């Protein structure tokens, strides 16, 4: 069997959680491959609302196995908080969730280092989620990290060594190294993690595939936040692109099947960094208001703008997207005119290719399309789409070169239209 991957094509918060939940009944296993509690994946069904941070979004369907892969960074405190809440609401998490031995642990001092790094950057700070993501991945790459598997072997000594190293760094950076209170909760979190099935997830997933089981990989963040290809340095610290699923789960590239690329009918970004199609006017405020564009984790206002096809073509190429999923179409229901940026003007030259830097001197060139002025939130099939909306879909498909196979018209699980083009 092949592994299908679902990932965000913009700057995160595209609606990955919702769609993973919708697609889960088609799979045996759902696995997260990167990121950590910087993610906030929202799911709504039967009047309930959940935000998942480290736990995959496949836990609410029919008892599928969910895996936290080796590419994920796990904070024991936040994991315990998230998991105990879910257990209280009746999810038998210890039965359905498995955690990779090779996933790295976020320590309390990583959060402090995140804060210290941001403070030192001053005006050019990234606006991270403050969850210690960058410092944890830094330790992984510099071969100083602590992994879930270490819990089983000489843990206290390894923890103290890492903590002392962080104290030295924090002193040099002028950061706060006092973590006494957090450390108590962290150790409780470690004890809690021990109650879960800690596995060699690369063997588990490959054996399941060999037995004919199907796997859906759930990305976090979005391709424009990828450490290599995103708007560096205003990015996260992991590979959010499809290749990250191979490295973050131990799945060979030849095993990748469908790649679901998910995007909003417009575009948002949270935190600092360039955003060529950002709107600073009433239209931007209107999109934010109607789309409830506030961070699921930090509550921060999301910056809003028109859809950016230059950036989307780039991320579709990077990921080898085979099917597109368009989210939040309903947010544009009341607009007279919809704009789509199909090219940039850079230093007087028109380009349709994504440039090395988008920090300065980019003027988006827009195509204007008529709005559909129809409430689509109760629609159940594509035959109900107004002509202008069908035209918007065709326009995007033509510009992006990949079919849009799922359209979302509201936050609820039910507000999802699977088009006939969908291959599964
Ligand atoms: P993720 O991080 O990619 O999972 O996305 P988030 O959960 O951070 O942000 C998506 C937000 O949009 C959540 O509040 C969802 O409930 C909401 N949402 C998802 N799909 C739709 C949709 O089609 N229409 C509307 N109006 N809201 C949606
Ligand atoms: P989901 O999975 C949107 C952004 C932060 C910041 C930058 C680096 O919900 O789509 P980090 O804490 O990762 O070092 O922050 O990345 N960011 C996200 N933005 N959605 C996310 O996740 C994000 N995770 C990180 O705002 O700009
Ligand atoms: Mg989110």
How many beta-strand elements?
Answer: 20
Bound ligands, each once: guanosine-5'-diphosphate, 6-O-phosphoryl inosine monophosphate, magnesium ion
- Cα Rg: 21 Å
- Helix content, binned percent: 25-40%
Mean of pLDDT: 96
Question: Judging from the principal axes of the Cα atoms, what is the shape?
Answer: globular
Largest sheet: spatial strand order: 9-7-5-2-10-1-11-15-19-20
Question: Low-confidence runs (pLDDT<50, min 5 residues)?
Answer: none
Main sheet attributes: strand count, strand direction, barrel closure: 10 strands, mixed
Percent strand: 15-25%
- Cα-to-Cα separation, first versus last residue: 13 Å
Task: Provide tags for this entry.
single chain, globular, binds guanosine-5'-diphosphate, binds 6-O-phosphoryl inosine monophosphate, binds magnesium ion
Task: Break the fold down into its secondary structure elements and pairings.
Layout: E1 3-8, H1 16-23, E2 29-32, E3 41-45, E4 48-52, E5 65-68, E6 73-74, H2 76-88, H3 93-96, E7 97-100, E8 104-105, H4 108-121, H5 133-141, H6 155-173, H7 180-193, E9 197-199, H8 201-210, E10 215-218, H9 243-249, E11 256-264, E12 267-269, H10 282-290, E13 303-305, E14 307-308, H11 309-319, E15 323-327, E16 337-346, E17 349-351, E18 362-370, H12 387-400, E19 404-408, E20 416-418
Parallel strand pairs: 1-10, 1-11, 2-5, 2-10, 5-7, 6-8, 7-9, 11-15, 14-16, 15-19
Antiparallel strand pairs: 3-4, 12-13, 16-17, 16-18, 19-20
The protein binds guanosine-5'-diphosphate, 6-O-phosphoryl inosine monophosphate and magnesium ion (MG).
């Amino acid at each position: 069997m092949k592994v299908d991957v679902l990932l965000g094509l913009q700057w995160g918060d595209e609606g990955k959680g919702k769609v993973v939940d919708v697609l889960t009944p088609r799979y045996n296993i759902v696995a997260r491959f990167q990121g950590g509690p910087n993610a906030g994946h929202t799911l709504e069904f039967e009047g309930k609302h959940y935000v998942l941070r480290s736990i995959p979004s496949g836990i609410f369907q029919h008892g599928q196995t969910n895996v936290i892969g080796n590419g994920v960074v796990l904070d024991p405190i936040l994991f315990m908080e998230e998991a105990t809440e879910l257990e209280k609401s009746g999810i038998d998490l210890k039965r359905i969730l498995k955690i990779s031995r090779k996933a790295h642990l976020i320590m309390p001092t990583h959060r402090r280092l995140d804060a210290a790094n941001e403070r030192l950057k001053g005006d050019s700070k990234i606006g991270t989620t403050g969850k210690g993501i960058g410092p944890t991945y830094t330790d992984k790459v510099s071969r100083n990290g602590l992994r879930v598997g270490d819990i089983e072997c000489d843990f206290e000594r390894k923890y103290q060594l890492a903590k002392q190293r962080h104290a030295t760094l924090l002193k040099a950076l002028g950061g706060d190294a006092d973590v006494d209170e957090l450390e108590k909760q962290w150790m409780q979190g470690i004890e809690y993690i021990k109650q879960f099935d800690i596995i060699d997830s690369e063997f588990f997933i490959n054996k399941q595939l060999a037995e004919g089981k199907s796997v859906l990989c759930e990305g976090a963040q979005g391709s424009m936040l990828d450490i290599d290809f995103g708007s560096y340095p205003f990015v996260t610290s992991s590979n959010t692109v499809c290749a990250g699923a191979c490295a973050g789960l131990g799945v060979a590239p030849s095993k990748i099947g469908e790649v679901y690329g998910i995007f909003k009918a417009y575009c948002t970004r949270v935190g600092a960094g360039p955003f060529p199609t950002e709107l600073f006017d009433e239209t931007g405020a209107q999109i934010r208001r109607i789309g409830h564009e506030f961070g699921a984790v930090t509550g921060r206002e999301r910056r809003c703008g028109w859809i950016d096809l230059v950036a989307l073509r780039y991320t579709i190429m990077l990921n080898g997207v085979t099917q597109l999923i368009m989210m939040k179409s309903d947010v544009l229901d009341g607009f007279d005119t919809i704009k789509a940026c199909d090219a940039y003007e850079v230093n007087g030259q028109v380009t349709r290719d994504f440039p090395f830097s988008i920090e300065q001197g980019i003027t988006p060139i827009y195509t204007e399309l008529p709005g559909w002025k129809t409430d689509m939130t109760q629609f159940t099939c594509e035959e109900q789409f107004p002509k202008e909306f069908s035209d918007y879909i065709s326009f995007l498909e033509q510009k992006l070169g990949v079919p849009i196979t799922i359209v979302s018209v509201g936050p609820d699980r039910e507000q999802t239209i699977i088009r006939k083009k969908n291959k599964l």
